[in-house]
Design a protein that fits this description.
Elements: H1 2-24, E1 27-34, E2 45-50, E3 56-60, E4 66-72, E5 75-82, E6 88-96, E7 101-103, E8 106-107, E9 116-119, H2 129-134, H3 144-151
Parallel strand pairs: 1-7, 1-8, 6-9
Antiparallel strand pairs: 1-4, 2-3, 2-5, 5-6
């Protein structure tokens, strides 16, 4: 009786290792879809297309407007969001890396699906407060006293 238990344990360990290796070689794109007022939009068809291979994966947003497209091969993706009564939105150049979660949120505009809004580049990184202190050319916050002094001139 010890032999079958040994083989079962060996098989289960091998299966777990294969699953772990498969997950470590992929990435994920996730996000939320909202309308112009910021309300969640359920039932939006999300398509993630690998720009190099042309393969696609699809998902539909849940009742809270959230989606997650997982087990994506690393590479550059074009992510599309489309649903009736809104313009189709496309985000190009989304980079997916191994074991990374890329967040791509959409704020859909009212219009026909055959109209589209395409974003080709991601937003630049936000400069931190410490960066402003180092560079005088970067704007800073005006205090109440400074505002009063400016207005009294």
């Amino acid at each position: 009786m010890a032999r079958p238990r040994c083989w079962t344990t060996t098989f289960l360990l091998a299966a777990c290792q294969c699953t772990l290796f498969a997950q470590a070689n992929t990435g994920t794109i996730l996000g939320r879809v909202t309308d112009p007022t910021g309300a969640a939009v359920p039932g939006v068809k999300i398509t993630a297309k690998n720009a190099q291979t042309g393969t696609t994966k699809e998902y539909t947003t849940d009742p809270l407007g959230n989606y997650i497209v997982s087990y994506l091969i690393p590479g550059n993706y074009d992510v599309t969001a489309e649903v009736a009564s809104f313009k189709r939105a496309v985000r190009s150049g989304v980079t997916v890396e191994v074991d990374q979660k890329a967040v791509v949120n959409f704020a859909l505009e009212v219009g026909a699906v055959n109209e589209s809004v395409e974003v080709k580049a991601e937003a630049p990184l936000v400069e931190s407060h410490s960066d402003r202190a180092k560079d005088p050319d970067i704007g800073s916050t005006v205090t109440g006293r400074e505002k009063h002094d400016l207005l009294s001139v």
